[in-house]
């Protein structure tokens, strides 16, 4: 095979890390819960923004759908794609067209519960043969990194790969383009992001002290893409950081401040729907809204998230492999059974808290008009932030917290203040 995938170091999963591996799928699903606030004409406009991708029903050698009762369970594959088409200044050197986040979402047949399983992008898998997305024949497959499937054959190749390693039939899929983040974040007037520890990426020129910041779309892209200068390094850590950010973004999207602001709401919906690619069955807002309504009726406490059990890959510790326990997890899903006790110790509920909008440490920066910030009640707005036009042009943003603390103390303070739960 000739899949050239850059090496990245796999990070160790922590309890706090697992708490944030939860809601990328909210971009593709929960936004439909607020579409009802707009008129029919705009409804059709937003629906027209969604890209429909056919081919799901023509895939070969698929696992059979198991139905144990009169109703059918539903399995939806949610993928976050980072095409990197010129968006974001600071972080470079990554391979374009990879799937950054993949979550297999299962809704029970009686719609009483739901759970999603994240598959680490660095997982080594035996990928089946896939049609190349450029139309130039078929790639033979073989042992490779999981997210290479998206680079080679797009969403359909990823679906084929997931079905091959899980033996779970996928009914629908949603792809969320991370480049849509920029417009979504800017439409909301920025999104608050928690930084529990200092980020000092000299390669990407991103510098953040521990604290909470209101970031613009471009800054958000840079932050969720950063791979260096942070202890939670590697793609697993980055995946969790991206999911945390999405949770914070959706929290603001469904806040009263957004729903009561027609201009902000419409801009966000336009950006969000423009970032979605789905199978034809999900290309209509009515179908997406039905799924969103099912999740709403299930209740956030009954929507759980876990990461597929993994361990370092013996031949390359920059990669991971799924453990034998993962096979049991896929079997639970295939036969529409709830998560077993072997997995509930690591479960995350969709109702788990996200960064608080009333946190005591917050900063904001505007590339067009300089910056103002307040990292503590007594902090000086003019001295806390260094964000000049020259820095913006160079692709650098620096937000400084002047508290006289060690980095570990800053991290602990952020956690104690509830900024990073």
From TrEMBL:
Listed transmembrane segments: 24-43
Tagged with keyword Manganese: no
Keyword Transmembrane helix: yes
Comp. bias intervals (Low complexity): 351-383
InterPro entries: LytR/CpsA/Psr_CW_biosynth, LytR_CpsA_psr
Region annotation (Disordered) ranges: 351-421
Gene3D superfamilies: LCP protein
Pfam families: LytR_cpsA_psr (PF03816)
Entry keywords, A to Z: Membrane, Transmembrane, Transmembrane helix
Feature: compositional bias, Basic and acidic residues: 405-414
Domain Cell envelope-related transcriptional attenuator as annotated: residue spans: 99-253
PANTHER family for the chain: POLYISOPRENYL-TEICHOIC ACID--PEPTIDOGLYCAN TEICHOIC ACID TRANSFERASE TAGU
Family as reported in the entry's similarity comment: Belongs to the LytR/CpsA/Psr (LCP) family.
Protein name per its UniProtKB record: LytR family transcriptional regulator
Protein species of origin: Nocardioides mangrovicus
């Amino acid at each position: 095979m000739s899949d050239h995938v850059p090496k990245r170091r796999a990070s160790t999963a922590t309890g706090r890390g697992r708490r944030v591996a939860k809601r990328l799928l909210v971009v593709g699903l929960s936004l439909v819960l607020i579409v009802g606030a707009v008129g029919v004409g705009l409804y059709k406009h937003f629906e027209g923004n969604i890209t429909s991708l056919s081919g799901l029903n023509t895939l070969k050698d698929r696992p059979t759908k198991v139905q144990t009762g009169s109703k059918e369970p539903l399995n939806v594959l949610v993928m976050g794609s980072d095409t990197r088409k010129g968006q974001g200044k600071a972080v470079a050197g990554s391979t374009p067209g990879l799937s950054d986040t993949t979550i297999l979402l299962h809704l029970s047949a009686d719609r009483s519960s739901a759970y999603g399983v994240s598959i680490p992008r660095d997982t080594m898998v035996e990928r089946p043969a896939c049609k190349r997305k450029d139309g130039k024949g078929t790639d033979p497959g073989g042992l490779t990194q999981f997210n290479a499937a998206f680079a080679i054959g797009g969403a359909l190749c990823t679906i084929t790969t997931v079905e091959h390693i899980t033996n779970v039939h996928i009914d629908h899929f949603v792809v969320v383009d991370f480049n849509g983040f920029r417009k979504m974040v800017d439409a909301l007037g920025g999104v608050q992001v928690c930084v529990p520890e200092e980020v000092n990426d000299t390669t990407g020129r991103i510098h953040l002290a521990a604290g909470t910041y209101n970031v613009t779309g471009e800054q958000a892209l840079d932050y969720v893409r950063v791979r260096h200068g942070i202890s939670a390094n590697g793609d697993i850590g980055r995946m969790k950081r991206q999911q945390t950010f999405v949770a914070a973004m959706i929290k603001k999207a469904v806040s009263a401040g957004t729903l009561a602001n027609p201009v902000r709401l419409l801009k966000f919906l336009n950006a969000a729907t423009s970032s979605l690619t789905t199978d034809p069955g999900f290309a209509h807002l009515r179908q997406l809204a039905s799924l969103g309504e099912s999740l709403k009726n299930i209740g956030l406490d009954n929507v759980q998230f876990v990461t597929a059990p993994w361990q370092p890959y013996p031949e390359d510790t920059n990669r991971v492999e799924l453990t034998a326990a993962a096979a049991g997890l896929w079997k639970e899903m295939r036969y529409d059974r709830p998560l077993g006790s072997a997995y509930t110790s690591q479960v995350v509920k969709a109702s788990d808290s996200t960064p608080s909008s009333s946190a005591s440490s917050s900063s904001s920066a505007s590339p067009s008009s300089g910056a103002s910030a307040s990292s503590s009640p007594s902090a000086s707005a003019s001295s806390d932030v260094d964000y000049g036009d020259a820095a913006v042009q160079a692709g650098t943003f620096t937000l400084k917290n002047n508290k006289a603390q060690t980095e570990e103390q800053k991290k602990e303070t952020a956690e104690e203040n509830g900024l990073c739960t």
